[in-house]
Amino acid sequence: PTLGNYLILPDLMSSLKVPLSRYIFNSLFISIVSTFFYIIVATMAAFVLSKAKFKGRNVIFWIVQFALMFNAYTLAIPRYLIFSKMHIIDTYWVSILPHMASTLGVFLAKQYIEGYIPNALLEAAKIDGASHYRVFWSIVMPVIKPAWLTLMLFAFRDIWAEVPNGTIFSEQLKTLPQIVTQITAGGTARAGSSMAVTVIMMIPPIIVFLISQSNVVEAMSSAGIKE
Question: What is the pTM for the complete model shown?
């Protein structure tokens, strides 16, 4: 074992156009903000699809399940065209907005809500005068804590490691994974440094996992998903 690969990182990073701290900030900012909005949007949508009664509810949920079959590669071109029309290319929004519409969170949270929140509990809250938002924040969110902690783990892990393709060009907006890609491109001479940065990048997802690990199995089993 050696710390040599870590000790040479400051000199290697000194040649970057912007400080390393900027890349770290971008990664943390995008990961935290995207994960937060991802959880809020997913749980709100799941609550409505699970407990609200309106026409087309089942159709919408079928669309949500159908969307699970698509990955980032198949959506790359449509996303770029949409972002271009919205004039958000080369901004933080291009990294945040796509995750707010992720359907896995809606599916998982809906299954959990249906299994753990009886209608009688919601009716009792409404009789006491609680609004829909009060019911959601004071009753639904605490009860489905294992579900949204699981979503937090999955979302943060994926967003932290994501490398934007063709949407971020400004060096001020690039994230840490993009720097790892540049270091790796240096070949065998930088293999040790590349692995050192990769280990450093593993730390935040591991911390998030340690926080949420006790809730993951419970949420997966309630949603009918087997590991």
Answer: 0.82
